[in-house]
Amino acid sequence: MHAGRGDWGYGRLREEAEAGAAPQRRAFGAPYESVTFSTATRSRCELTVTLASQPVFDLASSTPISQRLRRTIRRCGERSLFERRTLEVDDLKQIDVLTIEHGLRLLRLGPGDSGIVPAFWRTFAAGRGSYALLCAASQHSAEPGSLLVEVFGGIEHAPVEVIDDALAHFQTQTRGVVLHVAPDIDAARRLNGVRAHCLAIDFAGVAHETVRDWLSAAELVAAARQICSQLMLVNLRPDRALPAQAAGATHAVFSTLEPRTL
Length: 262
Known about the structure:
Radius of gyration: 17 Å
Shape: globular
Number of helices: 8
Structural class: alpha/beta
CATH superfamily: EAL domain
Strand order of the largest sheet: 2-3-4-5-6-7-8-9
Distance between the termini: 31 Å
Number of strands: 9
CATH architecture: Alpha-Beta Barrel
Strand content: 25-35%
Helix content: 25-40%
Number of domains: 1
CATH class: Alpha Beta
CATH topology: TIM Barrel
């Protein structure tokens, strides 16, 4: 995935796949590597943040072409996910900046590589937050690969012109944005005209196991693809790769098909 182009850079992941070193799709649901770091909120609540690298597949070639960092935030000593609505904007900004810093070291982007790191919309949309992300991402300026930021949370409710203004301040030839939208057709359509490089939809909450389920899922995929030329499905079942491509999806992060516990 190259941020400044319509295609995604293949890099060493594709080279390994073409050389026969890549396992089957199902095996690629598991993370490659992970890193955990700690931080504290303004209210002095200690948090633990874990970043896990996941492969991103090009559905047309069935090869891994990029890496996406999945982020988990917890209160220290608790198993449950930390509720991000209780965090202040400055807390979110601090988490996002540390995520980029630790994420770049984890990704180790080489020539032709690309990586996706997460960030909160509340950070990205705020002037100080966006500037902090730019400063953190500037560490990547000397790297030979492409960095994309996957923006989460509340994007569907923001006006397109506000989103585009935020994108214009961040996107360059080697730095782009993936908008993570709710798995809802109307939510996706509200983003019509946005200038993001890619949309992402989490299929963990989308029924797509059976043929009947897939009919509705395919409508969602088709609607989202009309908004953007690239569409990444996260937690897609491996056995739905071909139908997803036929419906319009271009990339996928596959699920493990194992029961999940939080």
